[in-house]
Design a protein that fits this description.
The complex is a heterodimer. Chain A has 19 helices and 13 strands. By secondary structure, chain A is of the alpha+beta class. The two termini of chain B are 86 Å apart. The chains are: A alpha+beta, B alpha+beta.
Chain lengths: 436, 439
């Protein structure tokens, strides 16, 4: 055999040895899965237990996958999270699995930062979309593609000052009440108690045209055409209704202080706030001097008793190197009933799984934290509010468009402009902005 | 000298493209760092439509790929400049690499394809492959246009990163970037003009060379005709000379002898009755003169014989011819005979000439490497065969040197056969007048 042949054979053997070595090494090497999360609550309420659920999930996951470690940076506050995550994305260090703030979702999905989950969902026989609340799942959809899964959801409820209603001799409205009922109550309770000529008791605070439009069945945005529709009768009626309520207050501004003092009957409140302020220790800080409860939003003549549902989403990086593991972990956080039950235990929102939220166990956990005299929110009502709620439309400039609309509509109401024509002008202005 | 200038151009193109690629990737990386340090990452995300996957990997990747591009350039330019297969292979690799680099850069810069086209122009001369490659490259320049692609695909844009800076810096950056892009195109255009000029120069050179060649050809033709004329003249002169020689020989020998004989016989006629004794003496003298005349004629005929035959006997002459043939050509000649080769001069002549002609034919037309010459005796005749292992002659045509042979054999009342199917075989049967010696 020639010398050349020896060299070639040695080289081939060396390459084979190296390749097999690398292969076996890769098999036993620890895979690190990056997880992006923020500390504290997504619902702007205090939360001391933000890492409990995640730590538990990580422990479960690492037990199942011995060679996988999940790493996350602790201590990133919600306010800083968007910037932190954007920085990671820019630097090419996007975590494999991460929480997505609702303000970021549209942007991230449109930039291709998020992995489309449709294929993973199709492949996974154990996964059933129908187990999620419809609204929660839709929150993670962008232009018909599922880019994120819901982790925790929070519907908006209507806070009711029971003490004040009782004083005025009015009963707590039923869950299918209407605008007319709301207007009646507001009209009745809006008065000057101490006789100084200034109103000091009000019907409602912080209820805006968007809430009203949503309960009147208005579809504000056309997601495909990137257009807002403000000239629809349903929207016009909603704005007119808000104007009527505003007019009751005699141009006086209702403030959070009025509400905290117990001088306002109604206020929209998130389910997270409800849970936080109903339980010790926060309940002693706020709303101590009156009894309160939560009910649904009043229905307009063309809509139902629905309200906006906010959902905390989690997604997978489109460039993840560990697609299967990332999917398993995402599923564990969002689809596992045990972990989802922990949302009731350690967080302030509700589970995104229908079965968990409507379970007796969830109800018991909610009850556990409350005084015996307090009535827990009905699990059927909670499920209904979540399932039937509305979700912010998937439009890139949604927040900006709504900000313009808010400003314009406030002007219409304050300066008593013609509602129909002013809304048309406003609609044109916003559509021009959206087209840019 | 020309090739060296082309190489300078190509090196310049490579350098400018490397600068462009480095600028795009490094600039994006540095700007990304700045954006992050200024805490406007989220805001920036809101203003772009796509992002590079990993800015630092893009630098390594594109520069690494560019390194391979330089490597193929060196291989093509300096190591195997004349190997067509390697040139095409490296051009193909270059094309693929450029497309990959351009897509790594998200089509923000596609000038690198000009480099590929420049190489294609330089290396593929006038072949069909050239036009195919050119077409594909030009098409890819059109296709990889950022503005067009960004309509349908999510691509990051260097302009988004440039807009991070204040207006003044933006102008400088855009200015620099545009200068790099235009310089690349400018060098490419100058290069193309240069190539075209150079090709025109080559065409002129080819034309003048062709003209020279045509002239030389003409001269050659003329010389050839003169030579033919000269050879015809020479032949004629040779013939005349030979005739004169023959005439002189006949005159000197036969004429002289016959004159003597005729005078002697006349004397005998007048003398025979008066003096028969004297007449007898006279006749004896005539006989002697006649014999001498015959000898004289033989000597003359001998003078007219081929060189070797003149000096040697037939067998030695044949051997001599074979040795000379083997010496002069790369052919083996095997000679075999069972006959005592001693014949009349005309017969010897014919045999010698037939063998000589056949050897010449076998070597010249048959390209034979081995020839067998055989002379056997038959009934009142000899059989001469000359066989070779050459290419033979499927379609027998007279005049391939065979006419002479036939004529010579016919003169001796012999027959000759030619067979060109397996090599070439000449079989001649010559009737021999054994014993008919002159003396």
């Amino acid at each position: 055999m020639s010398r050349r042949k020896y060299i070639i054979i040695t080289a081939i053997l060396a390459v084979l040895a190296l390749a097999s070595g690398l292969y076996f090494h890769a098999g036993t090497r620890t895979i690190v899965l990056e997880f992006g999360m923020f500390a504290g609550s997504n619902w702007d309420v205090a939360n001391a237990n933000s890492y409990v659920i995640i730590d538990k999930a990580i422990q479960l996951f690492e037990q199942k996958h011995k060679n996988v470690k999940i790493h996350y940076y602790s201590g990133i506050l919600k306010d800083d999270y968007s910037e932190w995550l954007s920085k990671q994305v820019l630097l090419g260090k996007t975590p494999d699995v991460f929480m997505i703030l609702s303000d970021d979702f549209n942007q991230f999905a449109s930039l291709g930062i998020l992995k489309s989950l449709d294929e993973l969902i199709e492949k996974d026989a154990s996964f059933d979309r129908d187990k999620y609340f419809k609204t929660a799942l839709i929150s993670g959809e962008y232009h018909g593609i599922q880019y994120a899964l819901p982790y925790e959801t929070v519907p908006t409820l209507m806070f009711v000052n029971k003490t004040l209603l009782e004083k005025e001799g009015i009963g707590v409205p039923s869950s299918d009440w209407t605008w007319d009922d709301l207007y009646d109550i507001c009209q009745k309770v809006t008065k000057d108690i101490d006789g100084d000529g200034i109103l000091d008791q009000f019907g409602i605070y912080n209820y805006d045209w968007l809430d009203a439009a949503c309960t009147n069945g208005a579809a504000l945005f056309d997601e495909d055409d990137m257009k807002i529709d403000l000239s629809d009768d349903k929207v016009v009626d909603a704005v007119k209704f808000i104007k009527m309520l505003y007019d009751l207050n005699n141009k006086q501004n209702v403030t959070q202080e009025d509400f905290d003092k117990g001088n306002v009957v109604f206020m929209p409140l998130s389910f997270a706030e409800y849970r936080t302020y109903k339980t010790y220790p926060y309940k002693i800080k706020k709303y101590l001097n009156f009894q309160w409860d939560c009910i649904t939003f009043p229905a307009g003549k063309d809509g139902g008793n629905i309200s906006e549902v906010n959902t905390l989403l989690m997604g997978i990086s489109s460039k993840t190197a560990h697609e299967e593991l990332a999917w398993e972990f995402l599923k564990l956080l969002t689809y596992d009933e045990e972990i989802q039950m922990d949302i009731f235990r350690y967080s302030q929102g509700a589970s995104v799984l229908k079965k968990v939220t409507s379970s007796r166990e969830a109800e018991l956990i909610l009850q556990e934290d409350m005084e015996e005299s307090e009535k827990v929110i009905d699990k059927v009502l909670l499920s209904r509010v979540i399932e039937e709620g509305t979700v912010a439309p998937k439009i890139l400039k949604y927040n900006e468009a709504i900000a313009i609309a808010n400003g314009g509509i406030q002007e219409i109401i304050r300066y008593d402009k013609n509602v129909e024509s002013s809304l048309k002008i406003l609609e044109r202005r916003i559509n021009q902005y959206l087209k840019q | 000298m020309q090739a060296k200038k082309f190489t300078y151009f190509k090196v310049l193109l490579i350098a400018i493209n490397l600068i462009a690629v480095l600028f795009v990737t490094a600039f994006i990386y540095i700007t990304t760092q700045k954006i992050c340090n200024n805490f406007i990452a989220r805001e920036f995300l809101g203003s772009v439509s796509a992002l590079p996957w990993k800015p630092y990997v893009n630098i390594y990747l594109s520069v690494g790929l560019f390194g391979i591009l330089i490597l193929t350039f060196i291989v093509r330019e300096f190591i195997y400049p004349n190997n067509g297969r390697i040139v095409y292979l490296t051009l193909l690799i270059d094309f693929i690499l450029s497309i990959v680099i351009v897509s790594v850069l998200n089509f923000n810069y596609n000038g690198i394809l000009f480099l590929v086209i420049a190489n294609i122009i330089a290396y593929t001369k006038g072949t069909r492959g050239k036009y195919v490659l050119m077409f594909i490259s030009v098409l890819s320049i059109v296709i990889t246009d950022y503005e067009m692609l960004s309509i349908n695909f999510r691509l990051y844009s260097i302009n988004d990163y440039i807009s991070f800076y204040d207006a003044m810096t933006q102008q400088y950056l855009l200015g620099f970037y545009n200068i790099v892009v235009s310089t690349n195109i400018l060098i490419f255009i100058v290069y193309c003009i240069y190539v075209i000029q150079n090709q025109r120069g080559t065409i002129d050179e080819v034309n003048s060379l062709y003209e020279q060649l045509r002239k030389a050809n003409e001269d050659l033709q003329k010389a050839n005709e003169q030579l033919k004329e000269y050879s015809r003249l020479m032949e004629k002169m040779g013939e005349t000379k030979e005739r004169n020689r023959l005439a002189r020989e006949i005159h000197d020998t036969i004429g002289h002898t016959l004159t003597g004989i005729s005078a002697g016989i006349d004397a005998c006629i007048t003398m025979v009755e008066k003096n028969p004794q004297e007449t007898k003496k006279q006749l004896e003298m005539i006989s002697k003169v006649t014999r001498e005349g015959i000898n004289e004629i033989r000597r003359s005929v001998n003078k007219l014989r081929p060189d070797a035959l003149e000096r040697l006997n037939l067998e030695s002459a044949i051997h001599q011819m074979i040795i000379e043939t083997e010496l002069m050509t790369n052919t083996h000649v095997y000679f075999e005979t069972d006959v005592n080769l001693h014949f009349a001069p005309d017969e010897e002549d014919a045999i010698y000439r037939v063998i000589q002609e056949s050897l010449t034919n076998a070597i010249r037309h048959g390209k034979a490497s081995q020839i067998w010459v055989n002379i056997k005796s038959g009934e009142g005749e000899i059989i001469l065969t000359v066989r070779d292992n050459g290419i033979g002659c499927k379609d027998m045509k007279k005049g391939f040197g065979t006419r002479h042979i036939m004529e010579r054999i016919k003169m001796l009342n012999g027959t000759v056969e030619f067979d060109g199917t397996n090599g070439f075989t000449v079989t001649a049967r010559i009737p021999i007048r054994w014993g008919e010696e002159y003396d």
